[in-house]
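Worked example 3 (structure in, sequence out).
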């Protein structure tokens, strides 16, 4: 039943809210799940109070379209968690509240240097080399239980590390624990980004840091910085000694130095690229492998496609995976069911506006629930089943045109890294499927028992890491 205050003010419908808390307590089992239940009860545009803030959630392609249109009509500002407001936002890409000139410059730098067709082609050998190392380690671990998330995560960090700093930062062997360094810093940043912060929901705490989340976030950023600080210094010194004779640009650090970035700017951008680009990609690969282990037919179909298109070679090249429609369909199906970012980053609307004939008051936060749309029976047949065939031969894509499928977001703030992410996911998944048979520990024969529950976070992951045993196919 809709709250009366919503009706009175012509707000999008939504549940009654508790005094002071609003509906915060109901979010604990997973905001995307709770918000999806609300959409089923109140319709595709609904509103909910969290603390003192009003959130308006769109959960259908029509609602998402209308929300995106409202950003063109009235000024809006990206909501940035208080823990991320560290005074460096003017240097930020992900946490820029406005699409400023600086934000535009950062985006086009990344688009042109890292994510353009030419940039991606130049990086291909780095991805291939790192995936090859991962496969070799798995061969060595044959017959033993492997935490696939940790391994794939380490590999994605090392690929990006080589692209940015010509260096891999993480040991691939996850059995060796690292007490400091980039891995710990990135895990901490993810955990901190997921911890509910009362300062985000009550203006009374504005300017304070009651849970010390801001301080801890800054510490984790500094921990990352300490990992590459000396590389930046050495490279600056080399450029200084070079006195304009011109060294070849070997990585993204050289590009940033050429563009006159300060150390702070380099750190902010690279930490954002690492935090935005590693867990998300690793989580997608982990989900995809879990789905394929569970759905043997799909696994066999990928193998047939690999055999037909590239033969029995075990060392796959990136150029070979660009034309594998069934593999691509499996990745899309994974992103439909398990989008790493289930709720698109909220934007605050700075003036009252109308959306779908409802009034949306000034300062409301607008969210698009991608997870709900991916599982909506009105949009997908048999939505909870993993059926890559639905994308096979279909034109539905993740490039922000099909509003029912938005794993990489939509509009100006859409993920700039998606071409990079997709290349990496295709190559890693093809290599894991081509090289190994996979089984579950404890002789678990009944694959339907594989736990597929998920954790909500800044990046949504499997609740339990996928533990699997590789067996070489060669
Ligand atoms: C499966 C992998 C990935 C997924 C699902 C994903 C998804 C997303 C989503 C949903 C957004 C927000 C879009 C919006 O608010 O409308 C985003 C933003 C962003 N992503 Fe990704 N991403 C992935 C991989 C990457 C990679 C590999 C990188 C870079 C190496 C990256 C860098 C970024 C950046 C910098 C932004 C902020 C853009 C801005 O605010 O202007 N992402 N991503």
């Amino acid at each position: 039943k809709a709250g009366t205050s919503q009706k009175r003010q012509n707000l999008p419908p939504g549940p009654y809210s508790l005094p002071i808390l609003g509906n915060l307590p109901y979010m604990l089992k997973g905001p995307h799940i709770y918000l999806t239940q609300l959409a089923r009860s109140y319709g595709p545009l609904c509103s909910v109070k969290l603390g003192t803030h009003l959130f308006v959630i769109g959960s259908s392609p029509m609602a998402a379209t209308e929300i995106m249109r409202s950003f063109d009509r009235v000024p809006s500002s990206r909501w940035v968690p208080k823990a991320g407001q560290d005074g460096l936002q003017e240097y930020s890409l992900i946490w820029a509240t406005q699409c400023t000139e600086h934000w535009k410059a950062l985006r086009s730098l990344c688009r042109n240097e890292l994510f353009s067709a030419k940039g991606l082609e130049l990086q291909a050998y780095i991805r291939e080399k790192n995936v090859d190392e991962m496969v070799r380690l798995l061969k060595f671990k044959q017959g033993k239980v492997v935490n696939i998330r940790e391994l794939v995560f380490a590999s994605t960090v090392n690929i990006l590390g080589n692209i940015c700093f010509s260096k891999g930062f993480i040991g691939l062997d996850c059995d060796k624990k690292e007490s400091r360094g980039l891995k710990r810093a990135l895990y901490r940043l993810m955990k901190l980004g997921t911890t509910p912060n009362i300062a985000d929901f009550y203006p009374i705490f504005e300017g304070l840091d009651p849970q010390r989340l801001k301080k801890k976030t800054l510490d984790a950023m500094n921990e990352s910085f300490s990992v590459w600080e000396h590389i930046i210094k050495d490279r600056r010194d080399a450029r200084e000694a070079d006195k304009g004779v011109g060294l070849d640009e070997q990585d993204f650090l050289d590009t940033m130095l050429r563009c006159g970035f300060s150390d702070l700017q380099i750190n902010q951008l690279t930490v954002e690229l690492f935090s935005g680009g590693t867990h998300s990609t690793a989580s997608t690969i982990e989900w995809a492998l879990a789905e394929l282990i569970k759905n043997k037919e799909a696994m066999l179909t990928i193998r047939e496609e690999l055999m037909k298109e590239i033969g029995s070679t075990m060392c796959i090249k990136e150029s070979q995976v660009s034309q594998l429609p069934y593999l691509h369909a499996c990745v899309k199906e994974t992103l439909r069911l398990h989008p790493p970012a289930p709720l698109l980053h909220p934007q605050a609307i700075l003036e009252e506006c109308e959306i779908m004939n409802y009034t949306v008051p000034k300062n409301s936060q607008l969210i698009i629930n991608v997870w709900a749309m991916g599982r909506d029976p009105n949009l997908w047949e048999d939505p909870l089943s993993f059926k890559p065939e639905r994308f096979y031969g279909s034109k539905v894509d993740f490039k922000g045109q099909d509003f029912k499928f938005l794993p990489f977001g939509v509009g100006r703030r859409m993920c700039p890294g998606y071409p990079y992410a997709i290349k990496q996911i295709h190559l890693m998944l093809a290599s894991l499927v081509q090289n190994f048979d996979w089984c579950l520990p404890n002789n678990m024969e009944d694959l339907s028992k594989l736990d597929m529950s998920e954790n909500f976070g800044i990046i949504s992951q499997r609740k339990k890491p996928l533990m699997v045993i590789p067996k070489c196919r060669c």
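Notes: The domain at 4-472 is CATH 1.10.630.10 (Cytochrome p450). The chain has one domain: 4-472.
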